[in-house]
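Progress against Task 2.4 (sequence-to-structure conversion) is shown through the following example record, which the project officer requested during the mid-term review.
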Amino acid sequence: MAKPPILRLTDAQRFDWLRLIRSENVGPRTFRALINHAGGAKAALEALPDLARKGGARRDIRIAGAEDVERELALARKLGVRFVALGEPEYPPALRASEEAPPPILALRGREEALQQPAIAIVGSRNASAAGLAFADRLARGLGQAGYVVVSGLARGIDLRAHVASLETGTIGVLAGGHARIYPPEAIPIAPRIAEHGAVISEMPLEWEPRGRDFPRRNRIVSGLSLGVVVVEAARGSGSLITARFALEQNREVFAVPGSPLDPRAEGANDLLREGAKLCARIDDVLAILDPVRVQDPFAMFREDGPDSSEPLWGELPLLGVDPDAAPRAKPAAAFDEAPVGGIGLSEADVIAEVERLLGPSPISLDELADVSGLPLRQVRMAVTMLDLAGRIEHSGSGLVALLMGDDRSAV
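Structure tokens generated for the chain above:
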């Protein structure tokens, strides 16, 4: 039986992918919807202004300029960073399997082999206790020696201690900003050392200065890369608990290290244990649960290991796991056909208006939205995409969407 061909973007396609994902209001979910709709990033870029206007944008959407992408590519070469697209063989299979909007493109510095190995995330408090730091060190060393890559977010405290302890066995650092704006400053001298035996990755533009909302985005990548997440110390409401929540939504194992009930830095981890997280009091507690998962290699189906092929891609749909023959080949400027709903044909504008009417500040899934509207799911998805391009949609975990109300609108 012939192996599937290895799929790769051409240089021109990679350039267009970067332009599209760097454009205003185009996040991972919207990117995928646009590619599926248009068949490729080049056609999606051409369709953006019209789609945003139909979604209700009151000004022109900002599309990343060719000169901006050329400048980013030049800086990437200078920094030793390369761009890996979703669906290419170098892309981490665990992250590709994640349901939490895997990034279409990762900026990678270091060894791509590290992204293919079984990984465990270790996260915790920035203001960690001495005991917490010592346990994170011991845990990272032991898991590394057991054959796991250690993943964390390059933050102060537990994260950096886990990275340093696993430098020789392999570690992956996930940036909240770009490679040229590493944060916090304590991580700057560590990043090149991580890249020697592991990898540093980011979904953000190279010169992006991280903001508060970028850290939860980073956390979904930390958990998505991993078979499980270990929370060493975490106060209530901390970013480590966000990582644990993402792990649960991605069907990853969540472990928590118990702490003193008198220490507020342990309250979040203790809460996780009460809510059903696995106890981690020693390294064997993690290995006993994850070693059988590692043997099964649950992400093997996402690895492309066939011979190279010179066959052209039909757009870029195969890299997103979409069958080109089954995908609707709509013209970029026309998102909808006339669709009978309840015996009445609805125009494109009617569908968008109906979806907007049904949405509100409470999150809902696209499947539920299609059920209550009676509209085909693909039309609901495209209507939400248009509203998203207009800055009118807010995404939350598990693919839920809500309508931004009033002054919350960002592209009007």
